[in-house]
Amino acid sequence: MGTLRRLAAVCLAAALATAGFAAPAQAAVPDGHGFVQWDGAATVPSGTWPPTTAVTAFGGGFYEIVFPGQAAKGGVVHVTAINGRPVWCQALKWGFSGSDQIVYIGCFRPGGFGIDTPFTAVFTSSSPPDSVRGLYGYVHADDTATIVSEYNSVLGGGNVVAPAGATGAYIVRFPALGTAGPNDGSLQVTAVNSSTGAHCQIAKWDSNPASQDVLVLCVDGTGTPLKTGFTLSYQRDRSLLGSAYPPKFFGYVWNMQPPPAPNLGPPSTNFNSQVGSGANLLNFAGTGLTLARFPALAQPPDTVQVSANGQRGEFCNLQAPWGYNGTTVMVRNVACYTPLGSRLDTGSFTSYNSEF
């Protein structure tokens, strides 16, 4: 391990060990939330809320994020690398200190080597009661499939996580969030591991009247199946942050991606809070690249998260920060890779969320 990586590891270990996590007060859904865009040197105001959110870079791909005033129990973290190369980011640990929420993330390149990179990250935590329209749920599970924290907008909790047989495979069920199917809404998944590089993907997904059932596959930096913690969020007609109306500006789209071109999922997996179902657009932009457009939604501060959909250890990131063409949000591009870093045509989930 080089000097920079040793220093990063020491700083990160000290920060994780000394963060004081005291119980915060609970509030309406969500109890606390925040998102941040880091450009490699500073936070980007248009992609950050609360505005005074701070990022500390330890070097070697390790970061601390402080969301001021957003302390909440449990919750989930999702993070997406912004890089033109094959790089992913994952959650390490999170908790609260006083009134602030503290999140630690790590970013890696194939092989599991830490690397500094721009990124976009989201934290959110909810607890009952819930009277918001739409459906929403999340789980944070450890590597044994034990639920660390969870939420279900109908039941409050009651989600189920279990090993799916193979190493690194987990089945997640969100009961009472059922829909007609075969697929309705959207998903995001993020690996949680503080000891090694890891990424997770959504392998299979079934919507049925009783539940949402999701198969999650996780691998290490070489693509070898890995037992690891993860977070998984489900949204339908609702923001990835857990709230809805407000915010008035959010959307999601599923690229089912049988090559050679993007293949939009059913209209019920393509939602735009301003225009309705089926309004978001995908365009093929090259091998492993997809341009996503969300019309009428551009309302910063805002955030974008992406997750891979496949069964070969793929991962996806943002090739560049999202931008705007009038009121249309331009995600140019969602980039997906094999575990070893070659661009690959595969499926992906993209979620856009504004604070407003």
Q: SSE layout and pairings?
A:
Elements (H helix, E strand, L loop, with lengths): L2 H16 L13 E7 L15 E6 L2 E6 L8 E6 L6 E10 L2 E10 L3 E2 L4 E7 L9 E7 L5 E6 L7 E4 L5 E7 L10 E7 L5 E11 L2 E10 L8 E8 L13 E6 L15 E2 L3 E2 L3 E4 L4 E6 L7 E8 L5 E4 L4 E3 L2 E10 L9 E8 L2
Question: How would you describe what is shown here?
Answer:
By secondary structure, the protein is mainly beta. The chain has 3 domains: 123 residues, no CATH class; 102 residues; 105 residues. It contains 1 helix and 26 strands. The strands form 6 sheets. Strands 2, 3, 5, 6 and 7 form a 5-stranded antiparallel beta sheet that branches. Strands 19-18-17-26-22 form a 5-stranded antiparallel beta sheet, with no helix packed on it. The radius of gyration is 18 Å and the shape is globular. It starts with a helix and ends with a strand. Keywords: Signal.
* Proportion of residues in helical segments: under 10%
Total number of beta strands: 26
Strand percentage, roughly?
A: over 45%
Question: How far do the termini sit from each other?
Answer: 44 Å
What's the story with the biggest beta sheet? 5 strands, antiparallel
Radius of gyration from the alpha-carbon trace, in angstroms: 18 Å
Which word captures the global form? globular
Structural class category: mainly beta
Mean pLDDT: 93
Number of helices: 1
Indicate the low-confidence ranges by residue numbers.
1-12, 14-23
Counting structural domains, the number is: 3
The arrangement of helices and strands along the chain is: HEEEEEEEEEEEEEEEEEEEEEEEEEE
Keywords: Signal
Signal peptide: 1-27
